[in-house]
Design a protein that fits this description.
- 25% of the residues lie in helices and 48% in strands.
- The chain has 80 residues and is of the alpha+beta class.
- It has one domain (4-66): Flavin-binding protein dodecin (Dodecin subunit-like).
- Strands 1-3-2 form a three-stranded antiparallel sheet, covered by helices on one side.
- A hairpin with a 2-residue loop joins strand 2 and strand 3 (51-64).
- The longest helix is centred in the first third of the chain and has 12 residues, at 17-28.
Length: 80
């Protein structure tokens, strides 16, 4: 059976919302194994002098939880 965990992360870019999404997924992938899905929850932007200066995305990232081998079962197998 597979089990997924969800976390909410916020990403930033001064280029575009797409860039913020892609870079946030890449950064999260450095510490989260088995990323499986992304849902864009919200897109915002900071404005200064009538222009967008920063794109902001809130993401729901899903990843599979790694299965831990049952140590007692492994030890029992080794002793047989």
């Amino acid at each position: 059976m597979n089990t997924e965990k969800h976390i909410k992360v916020t990403g930033y870019s001064n280029v575009s919302w797409k860039d913020a999404i892609v870079k946030t997924i890449q950064e999260a992938g450095k510490t989260l194994n088995h990323l499986s899905m992304v849902r864009v929850l919200q897109q915002d932007a900071r404005i200064a002098n009538g222009k967008i200066i920063e794109y902001i995305v809130d993401l729901d990232l899903s990843f599979f939880i790694e299965k831990q081998e049952d140590t007692q079962t492994s030890e029992d197998s080794d002793n047989m």
